Amino acid sequence: MTKLIASFFSILVFQGYTICFAQDPTQLKLKDFRPKSIYRVPVTKITKAKYPVIDMHSHDFAKTGEEVAQWVKTMDQAGIEKVIILSGAKGASFDSIYSKYARYGDRFEVWCGFDLAGYNEPGWSEKAVKELQRCFKVGARGVGELSDKGLGLSYSERFGPHINDPLIKPLLKKCGELKMPINIHVAEPYWMYLPMDSTNDGLMNAYTWRIDLTQKGILGHADLIKTLEDVVRDNVNTTFIACHFANCEYDLSILGSLLDKYANLYADVSARFGETSAIPRYMASFYDKYQDKLLYGTDNEPEAHMYQITFRILETLDEHFYYYRFYHWPSHGFGLNDTILKKVYNENAGKLLNH
Asked: What pLDDT does residue 268 have?
């Protein structure tokens, strides 16, 4: 019995690597897969971005003033100049979030949401525009993150109209007049629409965020991209940011076509470093072609290592490394040049924020 236990928990040290046999691979779940690269290849340690960074996509992760203060320290260490908090909030909720970050001046910018409550009632658009203007007066300089995964713009546990519904038009127009960019999330990564089986290479995340296309009235991926194009085309004075690469990372020619057509459309990379770092050569060429339209964003807990891994992907040519928040496939660096890095990290965002 003693030998059996010793064998089950045996540890072998081989050429500097520790191999533990405590896990039974026949019982290992995909969600628990934590591979470590064995390749002896160049490793670049980056603790601070090469150039000052504006994180165009984050959320209200800090729940207390102390946590905001710690976030600022992490930003200073990582070279993050400013963070955009996409609160999606309105009313008293927005005011509360705004006041929490306001003490740090221009280190944070808090964006609001649209008030969708009662959207199907007479006079709703006027009330919603009025609330948008109120949030602007408080300090909101943008709107987001609006989100539509197929059933309409979501708020609480309910759903509203799609972004291209005529009801939303007055809000979009007012955003243009106030120079408030709109950050919008349409669709989900394509893995979430595919069969949840062994052929789905994004299964680890896909299963959690899977889309049920059998739901009544739900729009599929292509139809949601069309809603985005409709509003970008029809509201030329309003700036739109398609977050997460418009969830077109599986075929970035879709996003590229939109960026080619519309001067008022931008895209952020937030929460899509894992998906795109699997195809580094293609991504390097994509960043090169669309360097004036792409924005840095994270959409993850503001921890130092999270920032560092994004810098490693963008700045280096390192190969085959892992980060636990990403999919189970390895990441590879894009090796972007200084001109592109400056634009993606800061200059493109600065134009949108009127810096």
From this structure: 98
Q: Give the per-residue pLDDT at 156.
A: 54
Return d(Cα 162, Cα 212) in angstroms, integer: 18
Spatial CB neighbours of 121, under 8 Å, sequence gap ≥ 6: none
What are the angstrom distances between the C-alpha of 123 and each of 20, 89, 113, 136, 223?
Answer: 65, 21, 18, 21, 28
Question: How high is the pLDDT of residue 123?
Answer: 93
> Residue 315 has what pLDDT?
98
- Classify 271 as helix, strand or coil: coil
**Is the peptide bond preceding residue 145 cis, with omega within 30 degrees of 0?**
yes
Q: What is the 3-state secondary structure (H, E, C) of 146-212?
A: EEECCCCCEECCEECCCCCCHHHHHHHHHHHHHCCCEEEEECCCHHHHCCCCCCCCCHHHHCCCCCC
Please give the helix or strand (H or E) that residue 342 lies within, else none: helix 338-342
pLDDT of residue 31: 76
Q: Which helix (H) or strand (E) holds 224?
A: helix 221-234
Q: How far is CA 338 from the centre of its chain?
A: 23
CB 183 within 8 A of CB 111: yes
C-beta atoms surrounding 38 within 10 Å: 8
How far from 342 is each of 45, 107, 234, 349, CA to CA, in Å?
20, 18, 31, 10
Task: Write out residues in the chain with pLDDT < 50, as ranges.
Answer: 1-18, 355
Secondary structure of residue 281 in the 3-state scheme: helix
- Bridge partner list, 321: 331
